[in-house]
Design goal:
With about 650 residues, the protein is of the alpha/beta class. Helix content is about 35%, strand content about 15%. The strands form 5 sheets. Strands 1, 2, 3, 4, 5 and 6 form a 6-stranded mixed β-sheet that branches. It has a 5-stranded mixed β-sheet with strand order 8-7-9-10-11, sandwiched between helices. About 10% of the residues have low confidence.
């Protein structure tokens, strides 16, 4: 490690009888520039679906429960094969059984085949558990993959937990799915298990956007909702989101994704459910939510003044579900110059034109930007396949397109909401919220308008359950503009909000980039970026986090680093999370989190530069350039300091 990057930190000795590790208590720091403007909950006050367990450290999506590594044991291979055979017998799907049986036979017949043994062990490495975005992982046979057996057992765990929580009552559950491979079958299995268990079930007959499912949980007063989706993951993946509501929780958390201890309780009931093949499943008996529910959602999202200023808009659904929904919503709102990207307009579970159906990934927006250039568009929006996230691009005066990052769109929409909220009666919702990895600018906007602001852990399962919530965003292009309708991120309502803002600014002779400049003049320039460092070594991410805890940086971009905020045991009222926050004397910040699915560490960078309110556009551009250089330097310092791990 470079001596000018890390410094040793004095650690008090732990009491050997306490079970505590020998490191310092985390420094608990205020994660926003100021206290909330008035009242409100303590910063990051953890909310849950019930009593929070002693150590509710959030899990990551797709990460399975740990199992003993017995391949080094003389009988290790046989033990692995026995576990695989037991799972295989209980799998109700012939295709999955054949797939796993072939891998078992290959491992048995060729014990020296390391690839087969490694693949089999990975598939048997515990059952997928609920993480930041529910269950999520590659499709395939085995408990550590997304398949019918895993879904059926999860549905039974959900059913049994609902019955436990509602003795003598009939649970109500709404089930939906996206357009990925196997999604319809997984949804049918879920509806069948829940119906057989005695629940009243609504099942959407066609694929639907995730925001509509979240809306339906509230609109139908359902106790739970299930959306089969892997959102923006690769075509090989699928997933399973569970929402809570109805008689099981208070109003702020109705229609919000589950958190601990609910996810733990469902997993426990799942583990006790027995083989999937033995779990009863009905083949009918559920209800159709009907077209009226979807029509009500579209009308509610589009409600408001019609567009008065013509705006040429091009969008893409990235082979997902957004096109007909966005077209209807935009049309109702008065946007009649809207075009889709033909090559990506309709669902295709193979996502043939993109390597990765995530608007944030390099190259994912190439097709829509080419279409926008040909059409002379003034605004581009890209929604991910299940339509819960929205990316934005605008023409660059220097030529080409400028893609706004999630923080830029988040603060622009936050400013719009803050102006509207400040004019409403004081008893109306007045809370703006963002996550620990999002820009601190939203807190300053809230304070400027006399509103409250709160920080949560990453994920809308934390953001959307805050009482009094009026607006929330996270930097991963997720925005919640209508918590009264959808207590989750909603790319469709976000796309409309951005279009309305762009149209109004055009009428005023301004633009989205100019509005960002105005925010910089008022609150200082906040520039954000991400850095992801990877390694083929599975233990690498853990070593990085341990090294940063023991030897945090001395300086970043030539500015001294202040006390380390370690959220391993919580901080500022937040639940425990494997995350670190570094802040420099220059008010720059780095938030560090390991990936839960691969040996990767994410660094969320923010540079803050004071700006003279009278600065002109050219000077502000120069300030932005220097801030960009400082942001890049922080990234270089982090790379250099961690290079020998």
């Amino acid at each position: 490690m470079e001596s000018d990057f890390h410094r040793p930190v004095d650690r008090p000795q732990a009491d050997p009888t306490s079970g505590d590790p020998a490191w310092v208590e985390p420094v608990l720091v205020d994660l926003t520039p100021s206290e909330p403007a008035s009242g409100g909950r303590p910063l990051g006050d953890p909310l849950s679906d019930g009593p929070v367990p002693d150590d509710p450290a959030p899990s990551e999506p797709g990460r399975s429960e740990p199992v003993p590594d017995d391949l080094g044991h003389p009988d290790g291979l046989e033990r692995l094969l026995e576990r695989a055979q037991a799972w295989l017998v209980g799998d109700p799907d012939p295709r999955d059984r054949a797939e796993l049986a072939a891998l078992v036979e290959r491992s048995r017949a060729r014990p020296a085949d390391r690839a087969a043994r490694s693949e089999l062990r990975d598939r048997m490495a515990g059952e997928l558990r609920f993480g930041t975005a529910g269950l999520r992982g590659p499709m395939g046979a085995g408990p550590n993959r997304m398949n019918r057996a895993v879904v059926i057992r999860a549905a039974r765990g959900l059913a049994d937990h609902l019955i436990d929580r509602l003795p003598g009552l009939t649970p109500r559950v709404v089930v939906g799915h996206d357009a990925r491979h196997r999604s319809r079958q997984f949804a049918l299995d879920t509806a069948g298990v829940l119906t057989a268990a005695g629940a009243q079930v609504w099942l959407f007959p066609e694929s639907v956007p995730t925001p509509l499912l979240a809306y339906a949980v509230r609109a139908l007063s359902a106790e739970a909702g299930v959306q089969v989706t892997a959102s923006h993951n690769p075509a090989s993946d699928n997933g399973y989101k569970v929402y809570w509501g109805g008689r099981l929780t208070d109003e702020p958390a109705r229609g919000v994704q589950i958190v601990s201890p609910t996810d733990v309780a469902i997993a426990a009931r799942r583990d006790a459910a027995g083989p999937a093949a033995a779990i009863p499943r009905a083949d009918s008996g559920w209800l159709d939510p009907g077209p009226r529910l979807a029509q009500d959602y579209v009308a509610a999202v589009a409600a408001g003044p019609g567009n008065r200023t013509p705006l040429r808009l091009v969008h893409t659904a990235l082979h997902g579900l957004a096109t007909p929904w966005l077209t209807q919503i935009m049309g109702r709102a008065g946007f009649d110059q809207i075009r889709s990207t033909p090559s990506q307009a309709w669902p295709d579970p193979d996502f043939p034109t993109v390597a990765f159906p995530n608007p944030e990934e390099p190259g994912a927006m190439d097709a829509v930007l080419a279409e926008a250039t040909a059409a002379g568009a003034e605004l581009v929006v890209a929604l991910d396949p299940d339509a819960d996230r929205c990316a934005v691009a605008v023409p660059d005066p220097a030529g080409g397109w400028r893609t706004l990052n999630g923080d830029e769109v988040g603060v622009l929409l936050g400013q719009e909401r803050a102006v509207a909220l400040a004019a409403q009666p004081p008893e109306s919702p007045r809370l703006l919220a963002s996550t620990i990895v999002s820009s601190r600018l939203l807190a300053r906007i809230a304070r400027d308008h006399g509103l409250e602001h709160q920080v949560t852990l990453t994920g809308f399962k934390w953001l959307a359950r805050l009482p009094g919530l009026a607006y929330a965003y996270e930097e991963a292009i997720g925005y919640c503009l209508r918590p009264d309708l959808v207590r989750d991120k909603d790319g469709l309502s976000a796309a409309l909000a951005v279009a309305r803002l762009a149209a109004r600014l055009k009428e005023e002779g301004s633009s989205l980039p100019q509005a960002l400049d105005e925010l910089a003049r008022r609150h200082g320039l906040h520039l954000t970026d991400q850095l992801a460092l990877r390694s083929p070594d599975p233990a690498w991410a853990d070593r990085v986090m341990a090294a940063l805890r023991r030897w945090p940086p001395v300086r970043l971009a030539d500015s001294p680093v202040g006390p380390l905020a370690d959220l391993a045991r919580g901080g500022g009222g937040l639940p425990p999370s494997d995350a670190l926050i570094l802040t420099t004397a220059a008010d720059d910040r780095v938030v560090v989190r390991p990936s839960g699915t691969e040996p990767k560490v994410k660094f969320y960078l923010e540079v803050v530069v004071p700006v003279d309110p009278a600065v002109d556009s050219d000077r502000l551009a120069a300030i932005r350039g220097r801030a960009r250089a400082r942001l890049d330097q922080i990234g270089q310092d982090l790379r250099a300091g961690l290079a020998d791990l």
